[in-house]
Each structure stands twice: as structure tokens, then as C-alpha cells.
Design brief:
This protein has 98 residues and is α+β, with helices and mostly antiparallel strands. It is 35% helix and 39% strand. The chain has two helices and five strands. It has helices at 18-32, 78-96, and strands at 8-14, 36-41, 46-51, 54-64, 67-74. Strands 1-5-4-3-2 form a five-stranded antiparallel sheet, covered by helices on one side. A hairpin with a 2-residue loop joins strand 4 (54-64) and strand 5 (67-74). Helix 1 (18-32) crosses helix 2 (78-96). The longest helix is centred in the C-terminal third of the chain and has 19 residues, at 78-96. It is globular and about 35 Å long.
Length: 98
């Protein structure tokens, strides 16, 4: 059984540029309305969220011009992590079929 402070990480590649991936990630956190965004930097591709003693970090890099790598690190429960990943993948799917 995981303790509340155990860190979990998930890395994924999405078919959108890093600027779009950043905006989608930021909107995901706003829509989930969980905690407070304590730091955001578009140029560095970094978003930090805090909810009490729990934290979530999204770090976005650009392996290619048209893809982004999103690394999500969190001490929050797996349910939140799964919802964030699901929302980002859903947005990616919608962009690809636009």
C-alpha cells in the first residue's frame, strides 16, 4: 500500500508541440481544481501545484518540433494522476482529429 507522500511518476509523449502541451496541462490542472498552482513557467515548461502537503509537478520538454514529452511527478493519489493523464490524452486525440 502506498503512503500519501510516496512519489509517483508518469512519462508520456504526445503529438503536439510543447507550447500546446503546456497549455493543455495547465488547463487540465485548472479544470481539476485540485490545490493551488504555486509556480508556472511557459519557457521552462514547468508547472507546480500544491495541495496541503501533497505536490504535483509537470515538466514539459520538446524531443522534436511536433512532439512533447510530459513528465508528471506527484505525491497525490493515483486517481488524480490517472485523471490528468486521461484528460491530456483526450485533448491530444481531439487535436489529431481536428
Amino acid at each position: 500500500m502506498q503512503t500519501p507522500q510516496e512519489k509517483k511518476e508518469k512519462k508520456m509523449i504526445v503529438l503536439m508541440d510543447s507550447a500546446v502541451a503546456y497549455e493543455v496541462s495547465l488547463q487540465t490542472l485548472y479544470q481539476r481544481n485540485r490545490g493551488e498552482i504555486i509556480y508556472q513557467n511557459r519557457q521552462k515548461g514547468l508547472i507546480l501545484l500544491k495541495d496541503g502537503f501533497q505536490e504535483l509537478k509537470i515538466d514539459i520538454t520538446a524531443p522534436t518540433k511536433h512532439t512533447a514529452e510530459i513528465l508528471i511527478s506527484t505525491t497525490m493519489d493515483n486517481g488524480i494522476l490517472k485523471k490528468i493523464i486521461s484528460f491530456i490524452k483526450h485533448k491530444e486525440h481531439r487535436f489529431l482529429h481536428y
